[in-house]
Specification:
alpha/beta, Rossmann fold, 6-stranded mixed β-sheet, 4-stranded antiparallel β-sheet, 11 helices, 37% helix
């Protein structure tokens, strides 16, 4: 499912946080969104997913204008996002969290529950959760409480909670925040594998340019709420506006294209086998 943002503006009081932002994510592709802190990246995600009101512009999901739909209506169409600080229940187990992530999609009402259909649907949710955990090599930690996991594994559980909702468009907000190089490599490998397997339309924000460079073929750069550059990495990294606003004059191609750990393949240590 394609995602189109056209001339989107957001104002908070006297501050215009986004100024006529436009971008397009074609069906089945990954677009990277980068820029300095305060550029408006998360505000754009909030506007796309319906958590902040837009001043001007539109958001189109496939061929449908969703600009004025509530967040739950957008999610119901298949627009799924993660948040910088997550939304997991730390005391609950991994499996419980992934099952709970699906509850918004349950159709069972009171009468159906009395007739026993709720239990059947709950089993289906657990089966679906187990399938996604296995795909991300997390079945070994399914019974563990989230608060006992490493930060890298918590990030993978957050991804599982998003994927289990079967997104048509996936918005990933800083998925590698707090991860080390090996954990970022695992994340990058799994995102690429998922893209090859399912081709989910994805918009990803991240400050780790190695990750963005290796999972997104097209990149949009925001600064002070405006798009200042876009294109593939070779175009973006040479753009004078991007260099001045974000990359800096001392940056080199090696800083973002030659990671110590190969992001194009799985890390040598499986993420689920690490100490938790």
């Amino acid at each position: 499912m394609k995602l189109d943002v056209t001339d989107l503006s957001v104002r908070f009081g006297g501050l215009r946080a986004l100024k006529n932002v436009s971008l397009s994510v074609p069906d089945g592709t990954v677009l990277g969104l980068i820029g300095p802190n305060g550029a408006g990246k998360t505000t754009l995600f909030n506007a796309i997913s319906g958590f902040v009101k837009t001043e001007t512009g539109s958001v189109t999901f496939g061929d449908r204008d969703i600009t004025h739909l509530a967040p739950h209506r957008r999610a119901g169409l298949g627009l799924v996002r993660t948040f910088q600080h997550g939304g997991l229940v730390p005391q609950a187990g991994v499996m419980q969290n992934v099952v709970m992530a699906q509850h918004a999609t349950m159709r069972t009402g009171v009468l159906a529950g009395i007739l026993g259909r709720a239990a059947t649907e709950e089993r289906a949710l657990r089966d679906r959760a187990a399938e996604v955990l296995a795909r991300l090599a997390l079945e070994g930690v399914a019974a563990k409480p989230v608060h006992d996991l490493s930060h890298g594994l918590i990030k993978m559980v957050e991804l599982a909670c998003a994927l289990v909702r079967e997104p048509k468009v996936l918005l990933l907000d800083e998925p590698s925040a707090g991860l080390d190089l090996a954990e970022t490599a695992d994340l990058g490998a799994r995102l690429r594998a998922l893209q090859e397997e399912r081709a989910i339309t994805t918009l990803v924000i991240d400050h780790d340019l190695r990750l963005v460079r290796h999972v997104a073929r097209h990149i949009v750069v925001l600064s002070f709420g405006e798009v200042i550059g876009e294109g593939d990495w070779e175009v973006v990294r040479k753009d004078p506006k991007v260099i001045a606003a974000y990359l800096g004059p001392q940056s080199t191609d090696a800083d973002v294209t030659e990671p110590t750990v190969d992001l194009s393949q799985k890390g040598e240590t499986d993420v689920a086998a690490r100490t938790v």
